[in-house]
Amino acid sequence: MKLVKILDTTLRDGEQSPGCSMNISEKINLAKQIDKLGVDIIEAGFAIASPGDFTAVSEIAKVVENASVSSLARAVEKDIDAAYDAVKYAKKPRIHVFLATSEIHMKYKLKMTREQVLERAAKAVAYAKSKCDDIEFSAEDASRTDREFLVQVYEAVIKAGATAINVPDTVGYSTPEEMYDLIKYLHENVKGIENVNVSVHCHNDLGLGVANSLASMQAGANIIECTINGIGERAGNAALEEIVMALHTRKDKYNAYTNIDTTEIYATSKLLSKITGIKVQPNKAIVGDNAFAHESGVHQHGVLANRETYEIMSPETIGLKSNKLVLGKHSGKHALRDRIKEFGYIVDEEELEKIFVEFKKLADRLKLVSDADIEALLYQNRATEIPEEFKLDYYLVYVGNTVTSVSSVKVTNSKGESKETTAMSKFGPIDASYKAISEVVGEQFDLVDFKIEAITGGTDAQGVVTLKLNSNGKTFNGHGVGVDIIEAAITAYIVAINNIFYDRKLTQKTMEENK
Fold this sequence. Notes:
The chain is of the alpha/beta class. It folds into three domains: 2-276, TIM Barrel; 323-383; 390-513, 2-Layer Sandwich (Double Stranded RNA Binding Domain). It contains 17 helices and 18 strands. The protein has helices spanning 24-37, 51-63, 77-87, 103-110, 114-129, 147-160, 176-189, 209-219, 240-249, 251-254, 265-276, 297-305, 333-342, 349-366, 371-383, 429-441, 485-513, and strands at residues 2-3, 5-8, 41-45, 68-74, 93-100, 135-140, 164-169, 197-202, 223-226, 256-257, 327-328, 368-369, 390-398, 405-413, 418-425, 446-454, 463-471, 474-482. The strands form five sheets. It has an eight-stranded parallel barrel, surrounded by seven helices. Strands 13-14-15 form a three-stranded antiparallel beta sheet. A hairpin with a 2-residue loop joins β17 and β18 (474-482). α14 packs across α15. It is globular. The two termini are 48 Å apart.
């Protein structure tokens, strides 16, 4: 049976999806979960893109325990230098060099000849090899590249020291038959290909990303590049969970396996959705809310008689528990810990104690606390793990349909200094509160996204506020959870501000360390 390695590029290509930007703290938390999922390679980012991207890759490299950590780099020395400086802290560092090879890219984007592209690719890989043993080379837009020229490029980079060659379907143009034929052709014609890994990176513009990846694997590729929930530029990338579960469920067809712990799939998907604020569609394969739901009477009858009548995999396989346990104010810490464990999370005593305190407060209000409520508390606790530059002491709002909303807030900074102020807004108490907080902080922030969602039904349901603030061209997320939606909105705003200040401090520290 063939081992197929998984390269997860959620933190690099996935983050390029509109609305999916993450701050450093969120990237680190997600990287730890992806490592726990069992991927072989984590593409942590594009280090040269900005000081923030460099810092994120560097910090991820320090915390990942098992996977290789890779940074993307264009085929130029300054990119490769930045990539290496960021991943050098990893237990298994890796540099991913790319250069376009299709006629349309060479002519209009690169403005280079074939000979120039061939020379630059080989030189870049050789330079990267002088810094790091594990080097991947991607021929961008490979699926639309002249095959004879593609062979020349791959032979040159293999000779220069590449340990993996990547065949991207960059614009999602290919079909499964074409990708199968291309990978087979390369195996038959590229000298030295037997000594390197062959990976594929398929985009989903025609909805064929997963199918193209699996066809490539059947033709000889042994690394599949993909993302959690299929996020990525335009229509996204091949979805990790779909590829992994296809190989897991249809071993009879593919005769292949991965190193992925499938029971971590659901938890990883949920974490990404909560970080980005972008939920997967209900009918999304594997991780959608309806993936294991049965409404039809005929289906329900069949599943009750024998689950395999309508389910080709069990929800437990991906870490989703089919039973729904509801806890209340009389439930203890052991029951709460067990429930959290079923979600795929492990908490220590200190974290459990913090969550339990909030759980008790919520249980007093709601009487019965749902799974969704508990997950929200867990995520809220982890979302606020970063150092608190500012902390809300209290807020007081005056609101009505015939008056201008007024909000008074008191905020304490990390030095222990407190400040109170009042602001007004004709747009409501939340806007007034945000104005007051910005005045206390001494900085204005651009609110680029704001969402409110009820976790459960009823007038006593917890609400989740997810927002994004723009600061110096970068986007930072904030999350707040509570029965009081104004308090949740204020919490989300302060979390986002704390993320901004933490990002600035961490970026400055990393840049100073690498001078």
